[in-house]
Amino acid sequence: MSESDEPRFISHHDSHAAATYTRLLLSKKTPNSSDQKKMRTEAQAQPNIALIKYWGKRDIERNLPAVSSLSVTLDSLWTRMSVEFSADLAADELVVNTAVSEEMLPRVSECLDLVAGSDRPRAMVTSECNFPIAAGLASSASAFAALVVAASEAAGIERDELSLARLAGAASGSAARSLFGGFVELQANEENIDVSTIADADTWPLTVVIAITAPGAKPVGSGEAMNRSAKSSPFYSSWVQQQAADLATAREAVLSKDFGKLATVSEHNCLKMHSVMWASRPPIVYWNSATLACMEAVRQLQNDGHAVFFTIDAGPQLKAVCLPDETDLVRSTLDACSGVERTMVSGLGAGARLLEGK
Ligand code: PMV
Fold it and tell me: Which helix (H) or strand (E) holds 298?
């Protein structure tokens, strides 16, 4: 990677960013003068579901992952974020689905500092999300991916997708992948991450059926949980060591559209990640009895010859990945599992983007 590919983490010491920002203030002006418009920009991103999981950090301070990962970006679940910088605001404000949110505000402010410099004007951030938040459905991935796109635009700073992905990844490791669509590989390099689409959504249109088994927020956040695993799980080092091989197998499976191969390696990788969690001290167990009922139902479908596999993240929801023809059967099977509150279906979709005309 050349030096020019390096991310520019902008701080008030960064004179280029400061100059850009001054230009922005001069060109877009302050909100109260007569000929001036507020700079409100809106972006949308979809969550991504990892098939080869990220669990553990190489560098906690910079939020760099210890392992590479591979995910699919969804299309029908989304987060929309709008950002408006204003010299009139004394502090950042965040509204999530029409309610003021104090809880997420510090992470949002930190992310805005990285995007636009800590000497930026304060921002009004509004977020709308069409699926449950903080329940292991990657709501932070879509939120931070949308946030960096909207905030960069609002700050008048042009960035390519990789730079945006690195900024999103600094806020939430998995968010870096939502900048890209389809099948996305994130390489955890020593100095920084590299992220790219290895196959577009329409080259292999898989379906993801999500079984919601408990809609509430998870008991332990993924950041805290993975640090606990790294410190205390006896399986953590072999998890890290085996990741490159799993990733290579999954990449081959995607590129050759080998569903069976992708199914086997994805389930194995997911169960290894959860074994690392279970063996942490204190243990981290995100599953509930409905999660297990769904796993059993997926196993039964596989035994009957259907093309479906499961994956589970830092929460009790089960995601079943299947060929499009199997969608109705997979959905009705999961709906019938004891403890499943509802199911959602999504195809694969595009990366984060600006919503024009907002
Ligand atoms: O991006 P974070 O810090 O929310 O961590 C995500 C961790 C998993 O969802 C469990 C795995 C992954 O790769 O998305």
Answer: helix 289-303
Check pLDDT > 80 for residue 97.
yes
How far, in Å, CA of 274 to CA of 219, rounded?
Answer: 15
Q: Ligand 1: list residues with CB < 6 Å.
A: 50, 53-55, 69, 140-141, 172-174, 222-223, 313-314
Whether the predicted pLDDT of 168 surpasses 50: yes
Token look-up 């600094």 returns 170
Q: Strands 318-322 and 353-355, how do they pair?
A: unpaired
Q: Spell out the alpha helix ranges (H) of 97-200.
A: 105-116, 139-154, 161-171
The whole-angstrom separation of Cα 150 and Cα 82 is: 6
Atom from ligand 1 closest to the CA of residue 175: 1
Share of the chain above pLDDT 90, in %: 82
The protein residue with its alpha carbon nearest to ligand 1, atom 8, reads 313
CA 263 – ligand 1 centroid, Å: 19
SS3 159: coil
Q: Structurally, what CATH architecture does the domain formed by 207-346 represent?
A: 2-Layer Sandwich (3.30)
What residue spans of 198-235 are helical by DSSP H? 222-232
What is the reported pTM?
0.89
Model pLDDT, residue 32: 35
| Ligand 1 centre distance from Cα of residue 154 (Å) | 27
Question: Which of 52, 139, 180, 313 to probe ligand 1 with, by most ligand atoms within 8 A of CB?
Answer: 313
User: Residue 38 is encoded by which pair of tokens?
Assistant: 């507020």
Tell me: cis bond preceding 324? Omega within 30 of 0 counts. Answer: no
Instruction: For ligand 1, atom 9, name the residue with the nearest CA.
Output: 313
Mean pLDDT score across all residues of the chain: 89
Q: What residue ranges do the domains of the chain occupy?
A: 16-200, 207-346
- Range 16-200: architecture per CATH: 2-Layer Sandwich (3.30)
Q: Dihedral of CA 260/66/273/239: which sign? A: positive
